[in-house]
Amino acid sequence: MKTDIILSGVGGQGILSIAAVIGEAALKKGLYMKQAEVHGMSQRGGDVQSNLRLSDKPVSSDLIPLGQADLIISLEPMESLRYLPYLKKDGWVVTNSQPLVNIPHYPDMEMIYKELEKLPHKVILDVGAIAKDLGSPRVANIVILGAATSFLGLGYDKIAEGIISVFARKSKEVIELNLKALQAGYDIANEC
Predict the structure, then answer these.
(1) d(Cα 159, Cα 39) in Å, to the nearest integer?
(2) Are 96 and 27 in contact (CB under 8 A)?
(3) Secondary structure (DSSP) of the chain
(4) CA torsion 35→100→185→14, rounded to 10°?
(5) What is the band of 95 on the pLDDT scale with cuts at 50, 70, 90?
(6) 98, 139, 166, 191: least CB-packed within 10 angstroms?
(7) CA-CA distance, 176 to 130, in Å (whole number)?
(8) Pairing between strand 87-96 and 69-74?
């Protein structure tokens, strides 16, 4: 078993929390894991990206080579396109449909949607609206994680356990809300 994942988005969207949950789930499943992060300007709304490499055998490098990612999980649609050169031909993209316009010359959304529609394997959903319906826009990152769960090779239960571990210091309500967000994303993605 080997799964290479690129997580992408903009600072403040919760990319590193997704990485922590997946990492916990991988460890609970007894897998090896390597992670590399780029989050230099994240506090100012800049690009945040993380490489996660999971395997049942030791992993030697933490960076995913071009054309080798099994999955791109993105909380920002333009950012999902940025990392397409890393995606395998049969890889999946799970992305938010709604942009976080944080630069003056943000690309035209019609062009972004056209590019996303060309992809053979994709799940595109409005995670912000789903999170709002659950009562908190802050769980949008866990909604997208739920939508990507079927492609991770870890199993839904291990991801749920990862959420419980990562948010253990928070209140019971926070954990329950994140578990609801995971379920909502999972259900919507499996309906597609």
Answers:
(1) 23
(2) no
(3) -EEEEEEEEETTS-HHHHHHHHHHHHHHTT-EEEEEEE-TTGGGT-EEEEEEEEESS----SSPPTT-EEEEEESSHHHHHHTGGGEEEEEEEEEESS----STTPPPHHHHHHHHHT-SSEEEE-HHHHHHHHT-GGGHHHHHHHHHGGGTSS-HHHHHHHHHHHTTTS-HHHHHHHHHHHHHHHHHHHH-
(4) 40
(5) very high
(6) 191
(7) 16
(8) parallel
* Terminal-residue alpha carbon distance, the chain: 25
Distance CA 191, CA 80 (A): 22
Amino acid (1-letter code) at residue 115: E
Distance of CA 101 to CAs 22, 77, 78, 80, Å?
27, 10, 9, 14
Burial class (CB in 10 A: 0-12, 13-18, 19+), 5: buried
User: Is the pLDDT reported for residue 100 higher than 70?
Assistant: yes
